[in-house]
Amino acid sequence: MKPLLTPPGPDAPTVADSSGAGTAETAPPHARTRAPMSVQILRLLLLAATATVVATWLWAWQGVQAYAWPGIDNRLTERGLAYLLILAPAVPVNLIAAIRLACGGRRAGRYLAAAAALAAVQTVLLLTPSAMPLADTMSDGSNHVGIRHLVTTGPLVFAGLWLATTTKTRAWLGAAPRPHRRVLGLEAAVWCLALACAFATGTEVRQWAHAATATEAPGGEYREPGTWAGLEQAVTETTDAIPGFTGFTTRTLDVQPCDYYTPAGLPTYRYLLTYELRDRASTTSATEPGAAASIAARWSEGEFTLTYDGAALDDTRLVTAERAFPADGDAYPTATGVHAIKLAYTEAAAPTLHLESPCVERAAEPTECILPQGDPLNDTINGITCRD
To answer: CB–CB of 361/266 below 8 Å?
Structure first.
């Protein structure tokens, strides 16, 4: 049998030197065998971990988009890029580790260790808001992302660590790597593609965030001008129904923010108007028992809708109603199904008439100032500047 056809091994035959000097050299070994099954499964786990990381970032970005509101800068760009910065490095590292495992060697082991370390660091960062980039904006959702990352990637990491400790895998990682000319080029291509994708995704996040928070043109459906006048008109229509009405003692107007913005990105405000009727000592007509009944009867007619007439918690009589508020387009849902003014009359020692407007959008600072009706002694206006 020819020596070169003998399987290689420790006892491989030598080949005589053709020069006749009597020296000999060992026959070149054959190419390494295919990676063991544990390594193949480990490569699949790395690919699965890559897919879960991408899915987690997409899920996190979708959650960040829920904070979008026209005209409001909720730091969507920073939120989205923070998740991208934390999760993105795992993608090229996992892919290169899977590629390197096909050849074996210590460099493949280093990439495998880097993939496991990245998974641990990512989970710790996501579960520890104070350690997050831009911690002040990431503390309201990163825990959920961290839990998802732990549940989806954690089992894959533990399975990979178990496979990495098997005898065949350690032998594969400790042996000399199988020669492959294109591995370095493929590794460089993965890094370049990952950087390009990260740049493109980051640019897309930034553009989307700016577009989502751009202020739109005022819709005009619930505009502020005329709100105060609408409340005063409702007071006039109410007091006209009170027999012998003689006026008010105080008027108080409070303009308060509603703490949300319209789809046009404009702030919203609510008007609260309170009139105090003259007490029993100064008049009898305004506070006689028929006043509440007259108001309840008036609030059951026309554009008014009576919503309650009975005793309050302090056993005083309370009458509430709603009145249609002028608005174009769809209206906010209320008890009457329309964009409405809320009215309340409380019959007490000092009867009060309280009106509350719906939230209205502010396109410009209000300039209208309306004189009080009923000749009140005290007139207080809060929330806006009333010019003489």
So the answer is: yes
